[in-house]
Specification:
Blueprint lengths: L3 H9 L1 H10 L5 E2 L4 H8 L2 H6 L1 E5 L9 E5 H8 L5 E2 L20 H6 L8 H4 L5 H4 L21
Antiparallel strand pairs: 1-4, 2-3
Helix pairs in contact: 1-2, 3-5
Length: 153
């Protein structure tokens, strides 16, 4: 079944209308996805607004460095709508690191924020690095990662 977005796109875009007339296929819809979007959607809107001064950069899966007033604003930039027309681009998609597949943790996100609500880690224990086992490899006292030749202490 056609959505209003698909029909509006066909009605306002001559190329899309010609393709639909010739093939009978509707324009494709895609769901914006990234590890950052997945993490932000697991937080409540109240907590996303309370995470202030969020910097989105390559450690969160996007090229460049963008400062957002809060995490909700960053989510709206990364995912303007739940479904987007495949033919249309949105701001964050051109900046997204396509090969970035790391599972982000709450600690990583909060490390990029200037202020976060107290106790947020306790409200979302499933999103913590310790719970997911997604924490970076252990480091020795000098800050170097253990190698295969030298056993970890």
């Amino acid at each position: 079944m056609a959505t209003s977005k698909q029909l509006r796109h066909i009605a306002t875009n001559p190329h899309a209308f010609a393709q639909f007339s010739m093939s009978g296929r509707l324009p494709q819809m895609v769901e914006p996805k990234s590890p950052l979007i997945d993490l932000l959607l697991k937080l409540s809107p109240r907590d996303r607004i309370a995470i202030v001064g969020l910097t989105v950069d390559p450690t969160l899966g996007y090229n460049g460095s963008r400062q957002f007033h809060n995490a909700e604003q960053a989510l709206r930039w990364a995912r303007p709508e739940p479904e987007m027309l495949q033919a249309r681009s949105w701001p964050a998609e051109s900046w997204r690191l396509k090969g970035f597949a790391h599972k982000l943790t709450l600690e990583t996100l909060l490390g990029k924020a200037s202020r976060a609500p107290q106790g947020i880690e306790k409200r979302y224990p499933a999103l913590s690095a310790a719970r997911q086992g997604a924490e970076a490899p252990a480091q020795d006292a000098a800050g170097a990662e253990p190698s295969a030749e030298s056993p970890a202490p």
